């Protein structure tokens, strides 16, 4: 009998035993003794039990005893919590699994683990037990060093999800002093009774030194900052001018009037636009920097760009996907110079329908570098071009007043007006099909030279920013549709249909306010996925516009949505209400755009033979998955730096009163957002005049005696009570009138 046959026979013996009506759940040691497993076979016996867990034939009780199972072992990412318990995120599962403190099996934050489901408890989140650590997720931790009186120190992790401090023997402290921000390499992950251990590998500076706070976040998210020598030497060899040889075989569009429209402080200009109108059709050109001409597939530069996945825009710095010499130089569509591009040339009718298009390699020359501020002024006050004198038109991102001689734009004004007309038609067409437009204010945090916040201003969308948005959406859709019908491997941007249960909850909630999403319908009290259409959500947002409950319902609707991601499958974009969508317009700062540019160029040149098609089929799933992960990492890092600077800013305003809106209602209190986008917490214990209960179904806080009610979107007056820079939290106190 072969080893495999013996192993399968042993598995059957165990399975038959646990299925027996007389079987009482046993621990591993008890099972081994009952089955008379010899000591030398105990390790193999342990492996067999693990396999049976993985196959879903066994499960563990709360006390770690084996019994027959109805479900498989799951693999996911362990997320620890400062309170001791943890969660495991499993891909494709909407709700995380709860891991009690004594069921973590030595797992550390971000570890990839195998878990076995524990028996379900009525009305509670599904619990599970970690049965195996597949891979460690963190090898380094960023934190604040504290020297003890004894011969050791410890590092308090910046990441508040990590419950334990890292013990550091003195000889491994690298001379760090109390208050230093350090990077510590984990040498031991600890147990329930023993702290993790580590050694200091880098001292970032003192906690109060300028820039150290942001650099700690950069290192905490493991964001690569510097480019290696090999990459920089590759960049140095790249020509900084477009030669005639580079232009060979390309469409010459240098005589076409086109502009770039960006923020005042943007340096990596990757898209230019041109519009003309022939009396019947609009001719829209979206011209995107041909970055792949300078970033060869599988070069050191390409591998580094893939690893980074995206540029990261932090409050005080940009961590670029490509070195600045490329992204701000030859790849940037700067004014008045020849540049290589990929152009999507679209013919659009009066209804906003794209009736014809062409995608081609081109050579272009941008006529004017425009800013959103100036274009907005030109469109809203066209008469300003008749004034030769300088006219102040607001402030730049750095808070400096800008004055502009608008007469220089007299010749370009008709094109901008045609752009506005066309953008309006494209937007109306999108709205007609049901595209959802959430308009939550973003913010711009202005810093001084030392990195301290001076002001926080809401960044509002305007006619100019929306115009560029409309044109980029049109190009992205056109390119995605073209390649979908070519049946070639591609990277799409997808946004899945919302989870039916979440939409059902939203539907129940809004019915309290007299709103109804009629297309939902009901089948056995459950929402059918097919019946949820973005148009219904769009209609809801239109109905609530300008009402007191608008902020509340808009937020809840957004929370009901899924996250957009990259995929090789074209499953559609729910939010945009379109079947085909991709990211084509930003190859300087997003790797998926760079990747599809390569595919586009190979297809245009007739080089997409079977071998190359197979090559892309093989690599694209991982490119899509990794790019989605890097996008999420960048978003988190951007949020954390914003939160940090908002806390630092509000430290200067403790004791001051503000009007705000309730942006979140939880079991522990009310979150309030101020007009400058700063959010703080009014703890439930500090709400005066009554004892309050949280009503989760209605998303409200209700007073026991008075019946006073606090709901999402409700205006309140608050006083800034205190700020915690370490926890990045702001506490408010309700000012009761």
Automatic annotation (TrEMBL):
- Gene3D superfamilies (UniProt xref): Nucleic acid-binding proteins (2.40.50.140)
**Which reactions appear under catalytic activity for this entry?**
Exonucleolytic cleavage in the 3'- to 5'-direction to yield nucleoside 5'-phosphates
UniProt-recorded name of the protein: Ribonuclease R
Enumerate the transmembrane spans.
none
Provide one Gene Ontology cellular component. Answer: cytosol
Q: Which UniProt keywords apply?
A: Coiled coil, Cytoplasm, Exonuclease, Hydrolase, Nuclease, RNA-binding
EC number(s) for this protein? 3.1.13.1
User: According to its UniProt record, where is this protein located?
Assistant: Cytoplasm
Instruction: Give every S1 motif domain span.
Output: 655-735
SUPFAM superfamilies according to UniProt: Nucleic acid-binding proteins
Reply yes or no: does the keyword Disulfide bond apply: no
Which PANTHER family does this chain map to? DIS3-LIKE EXONUCLEASE 2, RIBONUCLEASE
List the source organism. Answer: Waltera acetigignens
Q: Which GO terms describe its molecular function?
A: exoribonuclease II activity; RNA binding
Q: Which family is annotated?
A: Belongs to the RNR ribonuclease family. RNase R subfamily.
């Amino acid at each position: 009998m072969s080893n495999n046959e013996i192993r399968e026979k042993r598995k059957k013996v165990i399975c038959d035993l646990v299925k027996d009506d007389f079987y009482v759940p046993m621990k591993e040691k008890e099972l081994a003794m009952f089955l008379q497993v010899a000591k030398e076979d105990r390790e193999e016996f342990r492996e067999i039990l693990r396999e049976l867990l993985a196959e879903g034939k066994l499960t563990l009780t709360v006390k770690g005893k084996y019994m027959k199972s109805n479900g498989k072992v799951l693999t996911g990412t362990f997320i620890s919590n400062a309170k001791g318990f943890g969660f495991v995120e499993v891909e494709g599962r909407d709700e995380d699994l709860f891991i009690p403190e004594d069921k973590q099996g030595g797992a550390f934050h971000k570890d990839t683990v195998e878990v076995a489901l524990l028996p379900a408890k009525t009305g509670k989140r599904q619990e599970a037990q970690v049965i195996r650590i597949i891979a460690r997720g963190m090898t380094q931790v960023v934190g604040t060093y504290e020297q003890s009186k004894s011969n050791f120190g410890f590092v308090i992790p910046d990441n508040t999800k990590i419950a334990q401090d890292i013990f550091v023997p003195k000889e491994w402290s690298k001379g760090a002093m109390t208050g230093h921000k350090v990077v510590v390499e984990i040498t031991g992950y600890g147990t329930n009774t023993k702290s993790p251990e580590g050694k200091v590998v880098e001292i970032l500076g003192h906690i109060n030194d300028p820039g150290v706070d942001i650099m700690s976040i950069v290192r905490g998210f493991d964001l690569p900052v510097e480019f290696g020598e090999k990459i920089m030497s590759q960049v140095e060899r790249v020509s900084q001018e477009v030669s005639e040889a580079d232009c060979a075989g390309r469409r010459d569009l240098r005589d076409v009037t086109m502009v770039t429209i960006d923020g005042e402080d943007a340096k990596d200009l990757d898209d230019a636009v041109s519009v003309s109108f022939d009396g019947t059709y609009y001719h829209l050109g979206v011209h995107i920097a041909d970055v792949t001409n300078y970033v060869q597939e599988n070069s050191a530069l390409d591998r580094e760009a893939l690893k980074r996945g995206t540029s990261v825009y932090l409050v005080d710095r940009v961590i670029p996907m490509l070195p600045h010499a490329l992204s701000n130089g030859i790849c940037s569509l700067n004014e008045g110079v020849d540049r290589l591009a990929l152009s999507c040339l679209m013919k659009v009718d009066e209804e906003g329908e794209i009736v014809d298009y062409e995608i081609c390699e081109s050579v272009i020359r941008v006529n004017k570098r425009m800013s959103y501020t100036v274009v907005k002024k030109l469109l809203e006050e066209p008469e300003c071009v008749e004034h030769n004198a300088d006219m102040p038109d607001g402030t730049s991102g750095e808070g400096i007043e800008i004055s502009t001689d608008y007469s220089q734009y007299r010749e370009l004004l008709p094109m901008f007006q045609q752009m506005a007309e066309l953008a309006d038609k494209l937007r109306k067409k999108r709205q007609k099909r049901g595209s959802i437009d959430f308009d939550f204010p973003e913010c711009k945090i202005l810093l001084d030279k030392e990195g301290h916040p001076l002001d926080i201003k809401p960044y509002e969308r305007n006619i100019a920013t929306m115009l560029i948005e409309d044109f980029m959406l049109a190009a992205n859709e056109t390119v995605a549709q073209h390649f979908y019908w070519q049946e070639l491997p591609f990277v799409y941007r997808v946004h899945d249909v919302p989870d039916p249960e979440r939409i059902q909850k939203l539907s129940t909630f809004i019915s309290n306010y007299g709103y109804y999403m009629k297309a939902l319908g009901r089948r056995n009290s459950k929402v059918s996925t097919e019946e949820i259409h973005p148009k219904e959500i769009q209609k809801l947002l239109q109905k609530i516009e300008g009402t007191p409950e608008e902020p509340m319902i808009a937020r809840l609707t957004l929370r009901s949505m899924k996250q957009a991601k990259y995929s090789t499958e074209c499953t559609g974009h729910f939010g945009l209400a379109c079947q085909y969508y991709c990211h084509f317009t930003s190859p300087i700062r997003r790797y998926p755009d760079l990747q599809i540019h390569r595919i586009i160029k190979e297809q245009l040149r007739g080089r997409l033979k079977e071998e190359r098609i197979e090559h892309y089929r093989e690599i694209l799933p991982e490119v899509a998955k990794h790019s989605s992960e890097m996008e999420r990492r960048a978003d988190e890092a951007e949020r954390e730096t914003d939160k940090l600077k908002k806390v630092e800013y509000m430290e200067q305003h403790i004791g001051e009163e503000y009007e705000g809106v309730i942006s979140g209602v939880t079991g522990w209190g009310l979150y309030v957002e101020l007009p400058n986008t700063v959010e703080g917490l009014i703890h439930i214990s500090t709400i005066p005049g009554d004892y309050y209960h949280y009503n989760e179904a209605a998303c409200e806080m209700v007073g026991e005696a008075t019946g006073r009610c606090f709901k999402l979107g409700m205006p309140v007056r608050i006083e800034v009570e205190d700020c915690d820079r370490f926890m990045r939290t702001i506490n408010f106190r309700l000012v009761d009138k």
